[in-house]
Design goal:
The protein is mainly alpha-helical. The protein contains eight helices and no strands. It is 83% helix and 0% strand. It is globular and about 55 Å long. The two termini are 26 Å apart.
Length: 190
């Protein structure tokens, strides 16, 4: 719960900021005849810059962070934080697509993708729980990176928002590959 709270805190801050400040700006840009995709991609770039230091803290300094925030009694939580740090690198970017679908009047797509995503993630959490507490965030991250992000990219960014494949690949593939590489390194203990 404490490790997951550290994951959701920056995600909620980003979603709140996007919903209150950036979404109205994007709407105005659209009404002025601007290319909302270009503007939205710039916003995602800004979110990436914000997410990186938070994710890096959780990945590189989990023990120090746990001791600082909660004390020695919570030291075992430090083993989980790096996995949530990996998730922050991509989840912060995907939290905004629902707001953009709302702006475009395509809420039904967010509902459908969100429903499938929930089923996938519950399945991976249950799978991880069969092994150990540490396997829960491991499998959660694996499911997120290998199934949920491709689902969101195809149905959210490509089909719903109309991003072209080249733009999606250039922006997302490095983030996904880096996250998967970090997951493998953490999981194997390198």
């Amino acid at each position: 719960n404490r490790a997951y709270t550290l994951l959701t805190l920056p995600l909620n801050l980003i979603s709140g900021l996007f919903g209150r400040v950036l979404l109205p700006s994007l709407k105005k840009h659209m009404s002025d005849g601007g290319d909302f995709r270009k503007e939205y991609q710039n916003i995602l770039g800004i979110i990436s810059v914000i997410d990186f230091p938070v994710g890096a803290l959780l990945i590189l300094f989990p023990q120090q962070l746990v001791l600082l925030l909660w004390g020695q009694n919570w030291a075992p939580v430090a083993d989980l934080l790096p996995y949530f740090g990996i998730l922050i690198l991509t989840q912060g970017l995907t939290t905004t697509v629902g707001n953009v679908n709302l702006l475009l009047g395509k809420e039904h797509i967010s509902f459908r993708v969100g429903s499938v995503n929930a089923i996938i993630m519950i399945g991976f959490i249950v799978l991880g729980a069969q092994f150990s507490m540490t396997h829960i965030p491991r499998f959660y991250a694996l499911g997120w990176l290998c199934l949920t992000i491709p689902l969101l990219l195809y149905f959210g960014y490509f089909r719903s928002l109309g991003f072209n494949g080249k733009t999606i690949i250039e922006f997302w593939v490095p983030k996904i590959v880096l996250s998967l590489l970090m997951l493998v390194l953490l999981w194997t203990g390198w």
